[in-house]
Amino acid sequence: MEVSIFGMPSHAEFDLFVIQQPNKPFGVSWYQTDINADRHGFGHATVRGVFDVETFSVSPGGTTTFGATHQYHLGLWFNDPNVPFNLGCEPNKPGDKPIVTPFNGEQHAGIQVLNTAEFPDGAGPLSHVHR
Questions:
Q1: In degrees rounded to 5, what are phi and psi of residue 84?
Q2: Could you tell me which of 3, 37, 18, 45 has the C-alpha nearest to residue 103?
Q3: Percentage of the chain with pLDDT > 90?
Q4: What is the three-class DSSP state of 52?
Q5: What pLDDT does 115 receive?
Q6: Rounded CA separation 16/3 (Å)
Q7: Cβ pair 79, 34 in contact under 8 A
């Protein structure tokens, strides 16, 4: 899978996830790769894996149980919660703190910056890929 981003803040770092739903609460999600923007706000990543209509997660037991669940969407999060906060991408009144999400390796990421919400929830772009 080839993913390119542009128009991002220069030298910002991002985390790409395959997600069940493009917007909150996102559903079952799994990390794919980091994408780092250059000084022009452009970034690119090549991810090798199986990304298609048949890819799913299942948890038949253990600490969490759920049936077969497809993840057809992509979401991109700011790696550092301070970056979108300082850029004014979220509420920023005196005393406010950056919003922290679990979408990076440290489970201390910023807000989502891009997603595939132009596709319906159950039919993201990966549902259109057939091997």
A1: -65, -30
A2: 18
A3: 88
A4: coil
A5: 98
A6: 9
A7: yes
Distance CA 117, CA 32 (A): 18
Q: Which two tokens stand for residue 101?
A: 């999400």
Written as six digits, the tokens of 53 are 């209509």
Mean pLDDT of 106-118: 97
Q: Which residue has the tokens 């299942």?
A: 58
Q: In this structure, are strands 112-115 and 73-78 parallel, antiparallel, or unpaired?
A: antiparallel
CB atoms within 10 A of CB 77: 24
- Per-residue model confidence (pLDDT) at position 95: 85
Among residues 6, 12, 15, 8, the alpha carbon closest in space to that of 106 is found at: 15
Largest CA distance in the chain: 52
Amino acid letter, 114: L
Which two tokens mark 117? Answer: 């919400």
Amino acid at 126: L
